[in-house]
Structures are given as structure tokens and as C-alpha cells.
Amino acid sequence: MHYAVVFTLLLVFVFGLGLLARRISVPYPILFVLGGLVIGFIPHLPQLRLDPNFVFFIFLPPLLYIQAFNTSWRDFSREYGPILLLAIGLVIVTTITVAYAAYLVIPAFPLAAGFVLGAIISPPDAIAASAIAQRLGLPRRIVTILEGESLVNDATSLVIFKIALVAAITPGLSLFGGVWWPGQALYIAGGGVAVGLAVGWVINWIRARLIGDGVQIILTISLLTPFVSYLAGEVTNVSSVLAVVTTGLYLGRSSPEVITPTIRLQAQAFWEIIIYILNGMVFVLIGLQLPGILHGMNEHWWPRPFLYAVLINVVCIGVRLFWVFPGAYLPRLLIKAIRRREPKPDWRQVFIIGWSGMRGVVSLAAALALNGLPDFPRGHLVQFLSFSVILVSLVFQGLTLPTLIRTLGIADDGSAAQEEIEARHQISRAVLEKIDEIRREEKFPASAIDRVEQIYRDRDLSLQDELADQLGWSDSRHHLLSLRRLHRSMVATERRTLLVLRRDEIIGDDVLHKIEHELDLEEARLKF
Question: Would you say the pTM of this structure is higher than 0.85?
């Protein structure tokens, strides 16, 4: 019964806070964390203590998988240099800097514990970065770099975390005395990629042979995929995070050639609701953890923990800002090929990347993993400092990010919209060529061919206007948009008639749902 109450309350919180986030136009991760923080201090509510293994296995795989699935491999591969500098280089530098800052400032704080703290708070969160960056209309390259970084950096931080954790709880074992093996790190990372590719290939092979067995089977396989990939990584002792990310990238690339339109439409709706609920629960649970962390603090020398938290947050923000500028400009100075291939980075965009280091679920789960380690030194303080970084990065940096973007004059560069117009134009041209071919074959009535051809010619003329950036109301565009409005009006009439037929019991609900689904698809198509 206790779990039923907790689960129901979480859904209520996600519903209420999500609705409020939309009404006040605040990115939902920020409001969910703040809401969970406030709710956590309400007396007599059930206390939620997260099992880190539960977080790592239930929440992380599907969230990482769908993020990778929807990532453009073309854009990801183009920006691999900046992504790796952030996802590997910055994680290592942040870990080392935080470790020595904590070791030198906090009394009796072991260096190994500092490396654990640094590994916990070094990776920005994939979910938070995507939710906030996409909502703000940032240039495509910034979004690609932020999302790509947050997909890969978890693997780097977790490798360091495991190694530092062993050194911290093993008496007489030095962090630099044989624990850190570059070969081991390469095996973990390379093995994760190999496992992810293998799982992706197998899943793709299975889906291609079961595609005719119904949407339920394919959706079940889709939901199962991230967990299989994660478990395969765990069993082989490689990076489960990289395995999931690689599987998502592979299947995202290959799915359009395998999945049917009907399955794709239902899968999109299926994953949207799952990801929204999981995201909401994760960020609410982050906020709910603070009361338990404070209760576990057995060091009564406030306000020193607060001052230490300020120091660690300043270090995290400062290191990222100091790293991104050399990372953006030095490769251009040193490598001629980069200067030829890429334009000079805008310092404003570089600054926004530096300010966008929001932490989230991976940092929380890693911090909570210390609960089961009584031999770990200063564990509650490490958890408190970790939570402070999550809270400050999500709330302070997340809330100030829109103001910074407006102040610096950064906006969407329109490249994605331009590519969409170009793609639609090329598709229309290909269809018109096919119509000419069909006309020569004389397999269809000329009247039918003429009707289809006119639709595509009107659409193509409108797209040509947009490609030429003629935003005025040309005759072709006015005709096409008027046709869409008229068509939507007809669909609305069909829908009203259908409901009247159901109300008068002329048709049953099964017929209603079938025709309603067709009308929904038709109306969705008219939006484009």
C-alpha cells in the first residue's frame, strides 16, 4: 500500500507541476526540482528514499536511449571534436579541480573522496540540457554540442567514479597507485560501444522479421531495447551508458528503413508519454531527496557545509567557463583543417555552452550510491555538496539562461527550418518527375493524374517562395494555405458528423475509433 500511495503521489506531483510549468513558461526540470524540494519538507508525507540501482536501471536507460535515438548522427559526427572535449576532457578536469579544492579547503577530507565528489558532479545531464536548450530556441550547433556532451560524459564520469570509489574505501590503496589504468578505461569505453552496436544490430534484425506481427510486439521490443543494452553492458563489465547511447544512435539511424508509418506514429506517442512521466518523476525525486540528505548530516558545524557548497559550485561553474573558450579557439589555431571546415565560433555562443552545465539524474544516483558504503569517508557531506551542485545548476543557471540568451542576442539560426523547406522542395520535385513518368505509361486516368499533379505543383511553388525567402503572400502560397484551411474545415465537419452518428447509436465505438484515427492522421498532415 505504501508504494501505491507513493506512486500515485508522484503522478499527481508530475501532473500538477507540469501544468504549472506550462502556465508560467518555466522549463519543467527546474519547476519539478523546486516542487519536489518544497514537497519534501511537508510533514507526514511518506519519505522517499531512492535506491541508486533503481535509478540507474529503471530511469537512466530509457531516457538516454530515446535521447540518442532522436539525435542526428550527421550533426553528432560533425561536432565530435567539441563534444569529446567537453564529455571527456572537461569531465576529467572538473573532477581533478573539485577533488583538490575539497581536499585543500575541507578539514580531514581525503583526496580519494574528493575524486569521488568530482566524478559525481562533473557530468551535465542529458535530460535537463535537452529540455532547456530546445525550449529556448538556441542555434542548432549549440543544441547538438550540449546534447552530444551529455550523452557521452556520463560514461566518463562513472568510470572515474568507480575507480575513485575503490580507492576511497580500500585501506592502503592509492588512487594513483595502480587503480587508474588507461587500458582499463579504454576497454570499458570501447567495450560499451561494441556491445551497443551488437545489441542494436540484433534488435534491428529481430524487428525486421516481426514487423508484420503487430504494433504491440514492436513497441514491446522498443521498450525492452534500452534495458537489454544496459544489462549487456553490466554483464560484460563495460560502460552500460555508452552501450545504451550507441544502441540508440544505431537504431535511430536504421529505423526509418524498417519501421512502418503506422508503427512509427504510435511509437512516437508511446515514447512521448513514457519519457515525460519518467522525466517528471526523476526531477521531483531529486527535490525530494534533500530532507533525507540533511537528516543524515551528522556534522553540526553550520554554516561551514553551506560555505563549502558555495565553493564547490563556484569551482564547477568557473572550470566549465574557463575550459570552453580555449576548447573553442585553440583547435582552430593549431589545426588548419578546422579553420577551413568551420566558421570562427561566436564568443556569445561559447559562453552559453559554458553556462549550460545543468546536473541531474546521474549525479543524484551516484551520490545516493554512497548510502550503502559505511566505510566511505564523509559520505553525507559528499551527498550534500553533490545535491547543492544539482540544485544550483538546475535552478540558478537554468533560470538565468533565458535572460542571458536574450541579453546576448542569441536566437535559432533557422538552419533546421531551411533544411526542412529544402527537403520538402526536393520531395515535391521527385513526385512531379514520377507523375510525368506515370503519365507516359498511361496506367491511370488523365483526370486523376492532373488532380494529383496540381496539388504537388501548388505545394512546390509555395516551397520555392520560402526557399527564396519571399515571405509575402504570393498567389501560389495563398492558394495552398486557403486549400489547407478549407480542408481542415471539411475534416471538422466529418468529425462532428461522426460524433452525431455515435450519439444517435447508429455506429458503435469501434467504428468511431477507426474513422476517428483516420481523421486524426489527416488533420495532422494538414499542419505541414
Answer: no
